[in-house]
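Batch job 17 of 40 flagged for manual review because the log was empty.
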Amino acid sequence: MSSSRSIGRIIMNTIRIRPIEVIGNCPAGLTTKDEFEIVGMRLENRKGSTLCFLGVSQFPIGQGIWQLQSNERFFSRVSCPGCTFRADQENRVVFLLGHADKWQLCKLISEYLALCHNHPEPAAARKTKEDAILLQNQGKYAEAAQKMEKALYALKSTLV
């Protein structure tokens, strides 16, 4: 599958969308195994699962998707606002959106950021992450993913 498509003169990246966290219950039945893609101007369902309109409405369609499509960014995290079918429980899905051809790096960065949100970032992990960012800024995404994997390992090793 191609990772980008030309529409007129505009190159549109294929954007992969995956739930990375389901808090409570998703009424659409989304799990972290579901996956979708924005290919050109279409939302494609890769695994036959469903996606509720409330979740889709939270994708940063205007500026956010355009930033992903135009290479200003290559990944983003968004959350649906939550469903109120059970007021005693939070029901929300967090989505990762990213370029299909940089998907491994997107997943690693997302996991790293989520862990850093709740845990201190050790110096070794931070240094390796900074090296990954330098590679990423040079367009060396596969090498950046390898560095990010090492940074994530360094971070996780301090959590045990």
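Reviewer: the log was empty due to a logging misconfiguration, but the result itself is present. Residues 119-160 form one domain. Unflagging and moving on to job 18.
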